[in-house]
Amino acid sequence: MRLKERKLDRDKGSTPRAFLRQLSAIKAWGRQAPQDLGRIRIPVLVVNGDSDIMVPTSHSRDLARRIPNADLVIYEDAGHGGIFQYHAEIVPKALAFLAA
After folding, report:
1. DSSP secondary structure string, 55-93?
2. Is residue 36 part of a domain?
């Protein structure tokens, strides 16, 4: 798995306390009425990893589906830091997106 390639200087894993606090915030946010994202008229780039435990990939797919003409990028074998794991791929993608 790409997440396990680096052996030295690895980031520390999320603590159970941090996970539970974020989960609590997500639940509170999720109780709100869904926002009408169909009114967004600016370009939106949605990027996620397919193994993100903090923001499930299904949520990114739903977000991109609800925003007209959103550009969705899902990196395989990547977690919450997928943009760092795939920096060589995302930088040109982000620069092209911003230049458009």
Report:
1. S-HHHHHHHHHHSTT-EEEEETT--TTHHHHTHHHHHHH
2. no
Note whether residue 30 is domain-resident. Answer: no
The pTM assigned to this predicted structure is: 0.70
Whole-angstrom distance, CA of residue 55 vs CA of residue 61: 11
Tokens 């977690």 found at: 79
Total domains, the chain:
1
pLDDT in tens, the chain (100 residues): 666 787 788 778 889 999 999 989 989 988 888 889 999 999 999 999 999 888 889 999 999 999 999 999 999 999 888 888 999 999 999 999 999 9
The Cα 28–Cα 31 span in angstroms is: 5
Q: Looking at the domain assignment, is residue 9 inside a domain?
A: no
What does the alpha-carbon distance between residue 84 and residue 64 come to, in Å, rounded to a whole number? 21
Tokens found for residue 83? 């943009």
